[in-house]
Amino acid sequence: MKAHEIDYTIYGEEMQYVEIELDPQEVVIAEAGSFMMMDNGIQMETIFGDGSEQNQNSGLFGKLLSAGKRVLTGESLFMTAYINNNHGKSKACFASPYPGKIIPIDLAQFNGKFICQKDAFLCAAKGVAVGIEFSKKLGRGLFGGEGFIMQKLEGDGMAFVHSGGTLAKRELAHGEVLKVDTGCIVGFTQDVDYDIEFIGGIKNSLFGGEGLFYATLRGPGTVYVQSLPFSRLADRIIASAPKAGGSSREEGSILGGLGNLLDGDNRF
After folding, report:
1. Which H helix or E strand runs over 238?
2. Strand order, beta sheet including 158-164
3. Nearest CA to 194 among 143, 154, 156?
């Protein structure tokens, strides 16, 4: 099925949202929890599986298989479809779940397929299939950060993925290699060869603070890299959170806890 042709506008800088403009009877599918707002007359419907036409016409077993694939990528069994039942154009908006950038992916320009990290997908035009991509390399599956399974977007329509922090886009020439922290990969085109490499050196491995492996991405193809993976942000928040029976980590005040009393943070 040819995907619906949707128009869009991305707003914001650090906390972005994408506004999708739908013609009458056009549909956009989205992950649960990404909805922000919509015009009156757009109908919301919860669907089982990835929302693609192939999935919807494949019977109960096909829908169960599609939903099972989504569970493997850490997503919900269900997605939400938004259909414009108005006689004119209407708009629906979807927001990024944490600070970063929303990336518009025109699958028609990437030969119908884009591979991304498991939680990157935000929304897409109806007709785009959201599936899984298994790693065929043992080392990548065991040490690559994303495991054996990544997400794949297939079709000929628009899809939107989100990244954390600042986004870098690299166009790799044939044979060109880019080395990346495994958690900083957002996604890449299907022609890119993705593998992992041991950092090497006892001091680097034990005291470098960057783990034992990094990802190697070999061109040709397009690669998107994020500066702040959500897992890294969450780790910093957890490390700085107040511990049970203790106090929070101070932010450099020479007065310590007394400084908190003076600056208005009066929690005990």
Report:
1. helix 230-240
2. 42-48, 78-84, 27-30, 121-125, 158-164, 100-106
3. 143
At 87, the amino acid letter reads: H
Instruction: Quickly tell me which residue has 């065929």 as its tokens.
Output: 136
Edge-to-edge order in the sheet of strand 90-95: 7-11, 17-22, 90-95, 35-38
pLDDT recorded at residue 130: 86
Per-residue pLDDT tens digits for 44-101: 998 876 555 555 555 555 555 555 555 555 555 678 999 999 999 999 999 998 899 9
pLDDT digits (tens, 9 = 90+) for 212-259: 678 889 999 999 999 988 877 777 788 777 766 555 555 544 445 555
CA distance 255 to 116: 46
List C-alpha distances in Å: 51 to 21, 109, 170: 19, 21, 30
Instruction: Kindly state the tokens that stand for 265.
Output: 């943070």
**48 strand-pairing partners:** 78
Query: Residue 223 in contact with residue 232, Cβ under 8 Å?
Result: no
Rounded Cα gap, residues 226 and 242, in angstroms: 28
Query: Position of tokens 């990290």?
Result: 117
- The DSSP symbol for 255 reads T
Q: Say which residue the tokens 């950038």 belong to.
A: 101
Say whether 101 sits in a helix, a strand or coil.
strand
Q: Measured between alpha carbons, how far is 15 from 93 in angstroms, rounded to an integer?
A: 13
Rg (CA), the chain: 21
Residue with tokens 């397009």: 222
In eight-state DSSP terms, residue 173 is P
* CA atoms of 75 and 119, how far apart (whole Å): 7
Give exposure, 17-35, as e/b (b: 16+ Cβ within 10 Å).
bbbbbbeeebbbbbbeebb
